[in-house]
Fold:
Amino acid sequence: MGDNGYPLEPSVDEMRTMVDRVATRVIDHIASLPSQPASYTEDGRAGARALAESLPEQGTNLDLLLDLLFERAVPLSYNTAGPGYLAYIPGGGLFTSAVADLIANAVNRYVGVWIAAPGLVQLEMNVIRWFCDIVGYPPDAGGILTSGGSLANFTAVVTARRERLPDDFSLGTIYTSDQTHHSVRKAAVLAGFPEKNVREIPTNGRYELRLDVLQQRIAEDRKAGLQPFLVVASAGTTNTGAVDDLDGVADTAQQEGLWLHVDAAYGGFFMLTQRGREVLQGIERADSIALDPHKGLFLPYGNGSLLVRDAGALRRAHATFADYMPAMQDDADFVDFCDVSPELSRDFRGLRAWLPIKLYGIDAFRRSLNEKLDLALWAVDQLRTISDVEILAEPRLSLTAFRLAPPGRSEGQLDALNRELLDRINARKNVYLTGTSLRGRFALRICVLSFRTHRDRMEQCLADIRDSAEELT
Ligand SMILES: *Cc1c(COP(=O)(O)O)cnc(C)c1O
Structure:
Protein backbone atom coordinates (compact mmCIF):
# COMPACT_ATOMS: atom_id res chain seq x y z
CA MET A 1 0.00 0.00 0.00
CA GLY A 2 0.95 3.61 -0.30
CA ASP A 3 2.45 3.43 -3.81
CA ASN A 4 2.03 7.20 -4.03
CA GLY A 5 4.34 7.70 -1.04
CA TYR A 6 1.47 8.65 1.27
CA PRO A 7 0.40 5.42 2.99
CA LEU A 8 -2.47 7.18 4.75
CA GLU A 9 -4.02 7.95 1.38
CA PRO A 10 -4.59 4.64 -0.41
CA SER A 11 -5.02 4.82 -4.18
CA VAL A 12 -8.33 4.22 -5.91
CA ASP A 13 -7.38 0.61 -6.62
CA GLU A 14 -6.18 0.07 -3.08
CA MET A 15 -9.42 1.39 -1.65
CA ARG A 16 -11.43 -0.90 -3.89
CA THR A 17 -9.35 -3.92 -2.91
CA MET A 18 -9.59 -3.08 0.76
CA VAL A 19 -13.38 -2.77 0.69
CA ASP A 20 -13.70 -5.98 -1.36
CA ARG A 21 -11.59 -8.00 1.05
CA VAL A 22 -13.37 -6.66 4.10
CA ALA A 23 -16.76 -7.25 2.46
CA THR A 24 -15.87 -10.89 1.83
CA ARG A 25 -14.93 -11.46 5.46
CA VAL A 26 -17.91 -9.58 6.87
CA ILE A 27 -20.40 -11.33 4.61
CA ASP A 28 -18.94 -14.77 5.40
CA HIS A 29 -19.21 -13.90 9.07
CA ILE A 30 -22.84 -12.81 8.84
CA ALA A 31 -23.80 -15.83 6.74
CA SER A 32 -22.39 -18.12 9.43
CA LEU A 33 -24.05 -16.35 12.39
CA PRO A 34 -26.77 -19.01 12.87
CA SER A 35 -24.18 -21.81 13.06
CA GLN A 36 -21.78 -19.95 15.34
CA PRO A 37 -21.93 -20.89 19.05
CA ALA A 38 -24.34 -18.66 20.98
CA SER A 39 -21.50 -17.77 23.32
CA TYR A 40 -17.82 -18.46 23.64
CA THR A 41 -15.98 -16.65 26.42
CA GLU A 42 -14.62 -19.59 28.43
CA ASP A 43 -11.12 -18.78 27.18
CA GLY A 44 -11.64 -15.06 27.62
CA ARG A 45 -8.68 -14.37 29.86
CA ALA A 46 -6.10 -16.28 27.88
CA GLY A 47 -7.55 -15.14 24.57
CA ALA A 48 -7.55 -11.50 25.59
CA ARG A 49 -4.02 -11.64 27.02
CA ALA A 50 -2.74 -13.20 23.80
CA LEU A 51 -4.07 -10.17 21.92
CA ALA A 52 -2.27 -7.54 23.98
CA GLU A 53 0.29 -5.78 21.74
CA SER A 54 2.71 -2.91 21.72
CA LEU A 55 2.53 0.17 19.47
CA PRO A 56 3.67 -0.98 16.01
CA GLU A 57 6.23 1.18 14.21
CA GLN A 58 5.58 -0.48 10.86
CA GLY A 59 2.40 -1.61 9.16
CA THR A 60 1.04 -5.15 8.72
CA ASN A 61 -0.66 -6.75 5.74
CA LEU A 62 -4.45 -6.29 5.78
CA ASP A 63 -5.21 -10.00 5.35
CA LEU A 64 -3.20 -10.84 8.45
CA LEU A 65 -5.10 -8.22 10.41
CA LEU A 66 -8.43 -9.56 9.16
CA ASP A 67 -7.32 -13.05 10.23
CA LEU A 68 -6.55 -11.75 13.68
CA LEU A 69 -9.92 -10.04 13.90
CA PHE A 70 -12.18 -12.73 12.49
CA GLU A 71 -10.32 -15.79 13.78
CA ARG A 72 -9.18 -14.67 17.21
CA ALA A 73 -10.90 -11.52 18.43
CA VAL A 74 -14.49 -11.67 17.15
CA PRO A 75 -15.26 -15.33 18.03
CA LEU A 76 -14.26 -14.76 21.66
CA SER A 77 -17.65 -13.32 22.58
CA TYR A 78 -21.35 -13.69 23.14
CA ASN A 79 -22.86 -14.02 19.70
CA THR A 80 -24.89 -10.84 20.23
CA ALA A 81 -25.76 -10.51 16.55
CA GLY A 82 -26.93 -14.09 16.15
CA PRO A 83 -30.46 -15.54 16.34
CA GLY A 84 -29.81 -17.35 19.63
CA TYR A 85 -29.09 -14.24 21.66
CA LEU A 86 -32.03 -13.96 24.06
CA ALA A 87 -30.05 -12.48 26.97
CA TYR A 88 -30.29 -9.09 28.71
CA ILE A 89 -31.91 -6.88 26.07
CA PRO A 90 -30.61 -8.06 22.69
CA GLY A 91 -29.06 -5.52 20.38
CA GLY A 92 -29.48 -5.74 16.65
CA GLY A 93 -26.84 -5.22 14.01
CA LEU A 94 -28.54 -4.39 10.73
CA PHE A 95 -26.04 -4.81 7.93
CA THR A 96 -27.49 -1.70 6.30
CA SER A 97 -26.39 0.38 9.29
CA ALA A 98 -22.86 -0.92 8.86
CA VAL A 99 -22.98 0.22 5.25
CA ALA A 100 -24.29 3.58 6.45
CA ASP A 101 -21.31 3.86 8.78
CA LEU A 102 -18.93 3.22 5.91
CA ILE A 103 -20.51 6.08 4.00
CA ALA A 104 -20.73 8.41 7.01
CA ASN A 105 -17.13 7.84 8.07
CA ALA A 106 -15.81 8.04 4.53
CA VAL A 107 -17.45 11.39 3.80
CA ASN A 108 -16.66 12.51 7.36
CA ARG A 109 -18.83 15.62 7.37
CA TYR A 110 -19.28 17.72 10.48
CA VAL A 111 -22.82 17.56 11.86
CA GLY A 112 -22.28 19.18 15.27
CA VAL A 113 -23.29 22.57 13.88
CA TRP A 114 -25.99 23.07 11.24
CA ILE A 115 -24.04 25.37 8.91
CA ALA A 116 -21.27 22.79 8.39
CA ALA A 117 -23.56 20.21 6.71
CA PRO A 118 -27.18 21.41 6.50
CA GLY A 119 -28.26 18.54 4.25
CA LEU A 120 -26.93 15.78 6.47
CA VAL A 121 -28.19 17.51 9.62
CA GLN A 122 -31.60 17.57 7.95
CA LEU A 123 -31.49 13.79 7.40
CA GLU A 124 -30.74 13.25 11.08
CA MET A 125 -33.51 15.69 12.03
CA ASN A 126 -35.86 13.62 9.86
CA VAL A 127 -34.93 10.53 11.87
CA ILE A 128 -35.61 12.36 15.15
CA ARG A 129 -38.95 13.59 13.76
CA TRP A 130 -39.88 10.02 12.77
CA PHE A 131 -39.10 8.81 16.29
CA CYS A 132 -41.27 11.64 17.72
CA ASP A 133 -44.10 10.55 15.40
CA ILE A 134 -43.69 6.93 16.53
CA VAL A 135 -44.21 7.86 20.21
CA GLY A 136 -47.03 10.29 19.40
CA TYR A 137 -45.23 13.53 20.21
CA PRO A 138 -46.49 16.94 18.95
CA PRO A 139 -44.81 18.99 16.18
CA ASP A 140 -42.75 21.13 18.57
CA ALA A 141 -41.11 18.09 20.14
CA GLY A 142 -37.45 17.41 19.42
CA GLY A 143 -34.59 15.27 20.51
CA ILE A 144 -31.09 13.99 20.02
CA LEU A 145 -29.45 10.76 19.00
CA THR A 146 -27.15 9.48 21.73
CA SER A 147 -24.76 6.56 22.05
CA GLY A 148 -27.37 4.63 24.05
CA GLY A 149 -30.08 4.65 26.68
CA SER A 150 -27.74 5.47 29.55
CA LEU A 151 -26.68 8.76 27.97
CA ALA A 152 -30.29 9.49 27.02
CA ASN A 153 -31.34 9.01 30.66
CA PHE A 154 -28.47 11.22 31.79
CA THR A 155 -29.41 14.05 29.44
CA ALA A 156 -33.04 13.69 30.54
CA VAL A 157 -32.12 14.11 34.21
CA VAL A 158 -29.95 17.17 33.45
CA THR A 159 -32.70 18.72 31.31
CA ALA A 160 -35.36 18.12 33.97
CA ARG A 161 -33.03 19.55 36.62
CA ARG A 162 -32.42 22.73 34.65
CA GLU A 163 -36.10 23.17 33.83
CA ARG A 164 -37.49 22.52 37.29
CA LEU A 165 -34.86 23.34 39.94
CA PRO A 166 -32.83 26.40 40.96
CA ASP A 167 -29.04 26.49 40.43
CA ASP A 168 -28.65 25.08 43.91
CA PHE A 169 -30.53 21.84 43.35
CA SER A 170 -29.37 19.83 46.32
CA LEU A 171 -32.90 19.53 47.72
CA GLY A 172 -34.27 18.05 44.49
CA THR A 173 -35.65 14.52 44.78
CA ILE A 174 -36.17 11.91 42.05
CA TYR A 175 -38.77 9.11 42.07
CA THR A 176 -38.52 5.83 40.26
CA SER A 177 -39.37 2.18 40.90
CA ASP A 178 -37.24 -0.54 42.46
CA GLN A 179 -37.22 -2.22 39.01
CA THR A 180 -35.79 0.75 37.12
CA HIS A 181 -32.62 0.31 35.10
CA HIS A 182 -29.53 1.22 37.13
CA SER A 183 -28.56 3.83 34.52
CA VAL A 184 -31.21 6.12 36.04
CA ARG A 185 -29.51 6.13 39.44
CA LYS A 186 -26.16 6.58 37.69
CA ALA A 187 -27.61 9.49 35.69
CA ALA A 188 -28.83 11.16 38.89
CA VAL A 189 -25.41 10.84 40.51
CA LEU A 190 -23.59 12.09 37.40
CA ALA A 191 -26.02 15.00 37.24
CA GLY A 192 -24.84 15.99 40.72
CA PHE A 193 -27.51 14.56 43.02
CA PRO A 194 -26.61 12.72 46.20
CA GLU A 195 -27.64 9.08 45.84
CA LYS A 196 -29.97 9.45 48.79
CA ASN A 197 -32.13 11.86 46.76
CA VAL A 198 -33.21 9.00 44.49
CA ARG A 199 -36.35 7.35 45.86
CA GLU A 200 -36.91 3.73 44.89
CA ILE A 201 -40.66 3.19 45.02
CA PRO A 202 -41.76 -0.43 45.58
CA THR A 203 -43.63 -2.26 42.82
CA ASN A 204 -46.83 -4.33 42.69
CA GLY A 205 -47.24 -8.01 41.78
CA ARG A 206 -46.56 -7.20 38.12
CA TYR A 207 -43.38 -5.29 39.03
CA GLU A 208 -45.01 -1.92 38.23
CA LEU A 209 -44.38 1.23 40.21
CA ARG A 210 -46.94 1.64 43.00
CA LEU A 211 -48.74 4.95 42.54
CA ASP A 212 -50.07 5.08 46.11
CA VAL A 213 -46.56 4.83 47.54
CA LEU A 214 -45.28 7.36 44.98
CA GLN A 215 -47.84 9.95 46.09
CA GLN A 216 -47.16 9.23 49.74
CA ARG A 217 -43.39 9.66 49.31
CA ILE A 218 -43.79 12.92 47.40
CA ALA A 219 -46.03 14.30 50.18
CA GLU A 220 -43.58 13.24 52.90
CA ASP A 221 -40.65 14.81 51.06
CA ARG A 222 -42.48 18.08 50.54
CA LYS A 223 -43.30 18.15 54.24
CA ALA A 224 -39.59 17.64 54.99
CA GLY A 225 -38.72 20.69 52.87
CA LEU A 226 -37.36 18.77 49.87
CA GLN A 227 -38.12 19.62 46.24
CA PRO A 228 -39.63 16.70 44.30
CA PHE A 229 -39.06 17.48 40.59
CA LEU A 230 -38.69 14.31 38.54
CA VAL A 231 -40.37 10.92 38.23
CA VAL A 232 -38.89 8.25 35.95
CA ALA A 233 -41.31 5.58 34.74
CA SER A 234 -40.29 2.38 32.94
CA ALA A 235 -41.75 1.27 29.62
CA GLY A 236 -40.27 -2.22 29.63
CA THR A 237 -37.94 -3.04 32.52
CA THR A 238 -34.79 -5.07 31.97
CA ASN A 239 -35.70 -7.54 34.72
CA THR A 240 -39.14 -8.63 33.56
CA GLY A 241 -40.27 -6.28 30.78
CA ALA A 242 -42.74 -4.62 33.18
CA VAL A 243 -44.44 -1.45 31.96
CA ASP A 244 -45.51 1.06 34.60
CA ASP A 245 -49.02 2.53 34.48
CA LEU A 246 -47.88 5.42 32.30
CA ASP A 247 -51.23 7.26 32.38
CA GLY A 248 -51.35 6.91 36.15
CA VAL A 249 -47.79 8.17 36.60
CA ALA A 250 -48.53 11.02 34.15
CA ASP A 251 -51.57 12.04 36.23
CA THR A 252 -49.46 12.12 39.40
CA ALA A 253 -46.66 14.03 37.67
CA GLN A 254 -49.18 16.56 36.41
CA GLN A 255 -50.84 17.03 39.81
CA GLU A 256 -47.48 17.39 41.53
CA GLY A 257 -45.79 19.50 38.87
CA LEU A 258 -43.02 16.93 38.32
CA TRP A 259 -41.10 16.30 35.09
CA LEU A 260 -42.03 12.86 33.76
CA HIS A 261 -39.29 10.92 32.01
CA VAL A 262 -40.13 7.52 30.55
CA ASP A 263 -37.28 5.06 30.14
CA ALA A 264 -38.46 3.21 27.04
CA ALA A 265 -34.96 2.16 25.98
CA TYR A 266 -36.18 -1.41 25.54
CA GLY A 267 -39.93 -1.06 25.00
CA GLY A 268 -40.32 2.20 23.06
CA PHE A 269 -40.22 0.96 19.47
CA PHE A 270 -43.07 -1.46 20.15
CA MET A 271 -45.14 1.71 19.65
CA LEU A 272 -44.90 0.72 16.00
CA THR A 273 -47.27 -2.18 16.72
CA GLN A 274 -50.94 -2.15 17.72
CA ARG A 275 -50.29 -4.35 20.76
CA GLY A 276 -47.37 -2.21 21.84
CA ARG A 277 -49.45 0.97 21.63
CA GLU A 278 -52.03 -0.58 23.95
CA VAL A 279 -49.40 -1.59 26.51
CA LEU A 280 -47.57 1.76 26.33
CA GLN A 281 -50.66 3.93 26.44
CA GLY A 282 -49.93 7.35 27.93
CA ILE A 283 -46.26 7.45 26.89
CA GLU A 284 -46.92 10.55 24.77
CA ARG A 285 -47.74 12.48 27.96
CA ALA A 286 -44.12 12.22 29.16
CA ASP A 287 -41.91 15.31 29.13
CA SER A 288 -39.08 13.15 27.82
CA ILE A 289 -38.59 9.61 26.55
CA ALA A 290 -35.45 7.50 26.14
CA LEU A 291 -35.61 4.91 23.39
CA ASP A 292 -32.84 2.80 21.98
CA PRO A 293 -32.66 2.18 18.24
CA HIS A 294 -29.93 -0.36 19.04
CA LYS A 295 -32.62 -2.45 20.72
CA GLY A 296 -36.09 -2.15 19.19
CA LEU A 297 -34.97 -0.82 15.81
CA PHE A 298 -32.24 -3.48 15.46
CA LEU A 299 -29.41 -1.02 14.85
CA PRO A 300 -25.84 -1.88 15.91
CA TYR A 301 -24.69 -0.88 19.39
CA GLY A 302 -24.01 2.81 19.87
CA ASN A 303 -27.47 4.12 19.01
CA GLY A 304 -29.82 5.60 21.57
CA SER A 305 -32.10 8.59 21.55
CA LEU A 306 -33.73 11.09 23.85
CA LEU A 307 -36.97 12.72 22.77
CA VAL A 308 -38.31 15.80 24.55
CA ARG A 309 -41.90 17.01 24.28
CA ASP A 310 -40.82 20.67 24.30
CA ALA A 311 -37.66 20.87 22.21
CA GLY A 312 -36.92 24.27 23.80
CA ALA A 313 -36.13 22.52 27.08
CA LEU A 314 -33.14 20.74 25.51
CA ARG A 315 -31.83 24.01 24.14
CA ARG A 316 -32.27 25.85 27.45
CA ALA A 317 -30.37 23.05 29.20
CA HIS A 318 -27.42 22.91 26.76
CA ALA A 319 -26.93 26.12 24.78
CA THR A 320 -23.71 28.00 25.55
CA PHE A 321 -21.54 30.47 23.67
CA ALA A 322 -17.90 30.74 22.55
CA ASP A 323 -16.12 33.35 20.41
CA TYR A 324 -14.55 30.83 18.02
CA MET A 325 -17.82 29.07 17.19
CA PRO A 326 -19.78 29.87 14.03
CA ALA A 327 -23.04 31.72 14.57
CA MET A 328 -25.84 29.28 15.39
CA GLN A 329 -28.89 29.75 13.24
CA ASP A 330 -32.14 30.67 14.97
CA ASP A 331 -34.66 29.36 12.45
CA ALA A 332 -37.01 27.12 14.44
CA ASP A 333 -37.08 24.65 11.54
CA PHE A 334 -33.40 23.86 11.98
CA VAL A 335 -31.13 22.83 14.80
CA ASP A 336 -27.48 22.93 15.80
CA PHE A 337 -27.02 19.59 17.56
CA CYS A 338 -24.32 21.06 19.81
CA ASP A 339 -26.94 23.48 21.19
CA VAL A 340 -29.25 20.69 22.35
CA SER A 341 -26.83 17.99 23.54
CA PRO A 342 -23.66 17.57 25.61
CA GLU A 343 -21.58 16.87 22.47
CA LEU A 344 -19.83 19.10 19.96
CA SER A 345 -17.82 17.02 17.48
CA ARG A 346 -19.45 13.66 16.94
CA ASP A 347 -20.11 10.92 14.39
CA PHE A 348 -22.90 11.27 11.84
CA ARG A 349 -24.98 8.66 13.61
CA GLY A 350 -28.25 9.65 11.98
CA LEU A 351 -27.40 7.73 8.83
CA ARG A 352 -27.44 4.39 10.66
CA ALA A 353 -31.20 4.76 11.21
CA TRP A 354 -31.97 6.78 8.07
CA LEU A 355 -30.58 4.31 5.53
CA PRO A 356 -32.40 1.16 6.73
CA ILE A 357 -35.69 2.98 7.36
CA LYS A 358 -35.61 4.55 3.89
CA LEU A 359 -34.44 1.34 2.22
CA TYR A 360 -36.98 -1.06 3.78
CA GLY A 361 -39.78 1.22 4.98
CA ILE A 362 -40.95 1.25 8.59
CA ASP A 363 -43.46 -1.56 7.97
CA ALA A 364 -40.59 -4.05 7.75
CA PHE A 365 -39.66 -3.09 11.33
CA ARG A 366 -43.28 -3.24 12.49
CA ARG A 367 -43.60 -6.77 11.13
CA SER A 368 -40.41 -7.91 12.77
CA LEU A 369 -41.51 -6.46 16.13
CA ASN A 370 -44.87 -8.20 15.81
CA GLU A 371 -42.99 -11.43 15.17
CA LYS A 372 -41.06 -10.88 18.45
CA LEU A 373 -44.29 -10.33 20.38
CA ASP A 374 -45.70 -13.56 18.90
CA LEU A 375 -42.53 -15.51 19.69
CA ALA A 376 -42.53 -14.40 23.34
CA LEU A 377 -46.18 -15.47 23.73
CA TRP A 378 -45.42 -18.77 22.04
CA ALA A 379 -42.43 -19.32 24.34
CA VAL A 380 -44.42 -18.73 27.51
CA ASP A 381 -47.16 -21.11 26.33
CA GLN A 382 -44.51 -23.76 25.74
CA LEU A 383 -42.84 -23.09 29.10
CA ARG A 384 -46.14 -23.86 30.81
CA THR A 385 -46.06 -27.37 29.34
CA ILE A 386 -42.76 -28.17 31.09
CA SER A 387 -43.44 -29.70 34.48
CA ASP A 388 -42.61 -27.58 37.54
CA VAL A 389 -41.99 -24.42 35.54
CA GLU A 390 -43.28 -21.34 37.30
CA ILE A 391 -43.81 -18.19 35.21
CA LEU A 392 -42.59 -15.26 37.29
CA ALA A 393 -43.43 -12.57 34.73
CA GLU A 394 -45.90 -12.87 31.87
CA PRO A 395 -44.70 -11.07 28.74
CA ARG A 396 -46.13 -7.55 28.44
CA LEU A 397 -43.90 -7.11 25.40
CA SER A 398 -41.25 -9.65 24.32
CA LEU A 399 -39.66 -10.58 27.65
CA THR A 400 -40.63 -13.30 30.11
CA ALA A 401 -39.08 -14.57 33.35
CA PHE A 402 -39.49 -18.06 34.79
CA ARG A 403 -37.93 -20.66 37.02
CA LEU A 404 -38.11 -24.34 37.79
CA ALA A 405 -39.90 -24.86 41.11
CA PRO A 406 -40.35 -28.54 41.97
CA PRO A 407 -42.28 -28.92 45.24
CA GLY A 408 -40.61 -29.59 48.57
CA ARG A 409 -37.44 -27.53 48.03
CA SER A 410 -36.25 -24.53 49.97
CA GLU A 411 -35.73 -21.17 48.27
CA GLY A 412 -31.98 -21.68 48.58
CA GLN A 413 -32.20 -25.05 46.83
CA LEU A 414 -34.39 -23.56 44.11
CA ASP A 415 -31.84 -20.80 43.45
CA ALA A 416 -29.05 -23.37 43.10
CA LEU A 417 -31.23 -25.54 40.86
CA ASN A 418 -32.07 -22.64 38.54
CA ARG A 419 -28.50 -21.43 38.30
CA GLU A 420 -27.57 -24.95 37.25
CA LEU A 421 -30.44 -24.97 34.76
CA LEU A 422 -29.20 -21.73 33.19
CA ASP A 423 -25.65 -23.11 32.91
CA ARG A 424 -26.87 -26.27 31.24
CA ILE A 425 -29.04 -24.43 28.71
CA ASN A 426 -26.19 -22.08 27.79
CA ALA A 427 -23.68 -24.94 27.60
CA ARG A 428 -25.60 -26.29 24.61
CA LYS A 429 -24.62 -23.10 22.78
CA ASN A 430 -27.77 -22.84 20.69
CA VAL A 431 -29.11 -19.91 22.69
CA TYR A 432 -27.74 -17.61 25.32
CA LEU A 433 -29.99 -16.70 28.25
CA THR A 434 -29.31 -14.66 31.38
CA GLY A 435 -30.82 -14.68 34.84
CA THR A 436 -31.81 -12.10 37.40
CA SER A 437 -33.06 -11.85 40.94
CA LEU A 438 -36.77 -11.13 41.45
CA ARG A 439 -37.70 -10.33 45.05
CA GLY A 440 -34.78 -12.49 46.11
CA ARG A 441 -35.63 -15.42 43.80
CA PHE A 442 -33.26 -16.40 41.01
CA ALA A 443 -35.10 -16.34 37.66
CA LEU A 444 -34.21 -17.11 34.06
CA ARG A 445 -35.23 -14.63 31.38
CA ILE A 446 -36.02 -14.92 27.70
CA CYS A 447 -35.94 -11.62 25.82
CA VAL A 448 -36.82 -11.93 22.13
CA LEU A 449 -35.67 -8.82 20.30
CA SER A 450 -33.21 -9.74 17.56
CA PHE A 451 -34.45 -9.32 14.00
CA ARG A 452 -32.61 -12.59 13.28
CA THR A 453 -34.55 -14.66 15.85
CA HIS A 454 -37.35 -16.68 14.26
CA ARG A 455 -39.57 -19.61 15.18
CA ASP A 456 -36.93 -22.27 14.43
CA ARG A 457 -34.52 -20.82 16.99
CA MET A 458 -37.26 -20.46 19.59
CA GLU A 459 -38.16 -24.11 19.11
CA GLN A 460 -34.52 -24.99 19.71
CA CYS A 461 -34.53 -22.76 22.80
CA LEU A 462 -37.57 -24.49 24.27
CA ALA A 463 -36.16 -27.93 23.47
CA ASP A 464 -32.94 -27.00 25.27
CA ILE A 465 -34.86 -25.72 28.31
CA ARG A 466 -37.02 -28.84 28.40
CA ASP A 467 -34.09 -31.24 28.06
CA SER A 468 -31.99 -29.38 30.64
CA ALA A 469 -34.90 -29.31 33.09
CA GLU A 470 -35.44 -33.06 32.65
CA GLU A 471 -31.79 -33.74 33.40
CA LEU A 472 -32.17 -31.89 36.69
CA THR A 473 -35.49 -33.15 38.05
C1 LIG B 1 -30.70 -1.06 27.84
C2 LIG B 1 -31.44 -0.20 28.78
C3 LIG B 1 -30.87 0.95 29.32
C4 LIG B 1 -29.44 1.32 29.07
O1 LIG B 1 -29.26 1.61 27.74
P1 LIG B 1 -27.81 1.47 27.04
O2 LIG B 1 -28.16 1.68 25.63
O3 LIG B 1 -27.32 0.11 27.34
O4 LIG B 1 -26.95 2.52 27.60
C5 LIG B 1 -31.65 1.74 30.14
N1 LIG B 1 -32.91 1.41 30.42
C6 LIG B 1 -33.49 0.29 29.94
C7 LIG B 1 -34.90 -0.02 30.30
C8 LIG B 1 -32.77 -0.54 29.10
O5 LIG B 1 -33.35 -1.64 28.61
Summary: Residues 75 and 87 are 18 Å apart (CA to CA).
